[in-house]
Specification:
Length: 115
């Protein structure tokens, strides 16, 4: 599942407003331009979720999580997600305790956009 497909899922199936979704977002990390596949912004224009999307034939691996973590050094979101369309892993980051918790499903729209 590439970034455009995941973005369409958010728009069509999850009813996210188009204005809250960024696709192929430029992220500058250590002076080098990188591209975050998908980011969701709340009503305050703060990034709250980033998604790293791989093609279905590419297995989710530790390097996929590391890639999302690198982008998050810049974005500092509360939720990260990695997917290849067959597997989806979403986790909540708690910056106060420096922990993360895997979730059974994507956080709902209200949780992301209102917070």
């Amino acid at each position: 599942m590439g970034a455009p497909t995941f973005a369409q899922y958010l728009l069509r199936d999850m009813n996210y407003p188009r204005s809250s979704i960024g696709v192929e977002m430029l992220v500058t990390l250590n002076g080098m331009p990188q591209r975050c596949d998908v980011a969701i912004w709340n009503k305050y224009r703060q990034a709250v979720l980033l998604a790293e999307c791989k093609a279905p034939h590419i297995a989710i691996s530790p390097s996929t999580f590391e890639q999302a973590a690198r982008y998050n050094l810049v974005l500092k979101v509360r939720y990260c997600l990695v997917t290849n369309g067959q597997q989806l892993y979403c986790y909540h980051l708690n910056y106060e305790t420096n922990t993360y918790t895997f979730m059974d499903e994507l956080p709902n729209r209200q949780t992301l956009l209102e917070g």
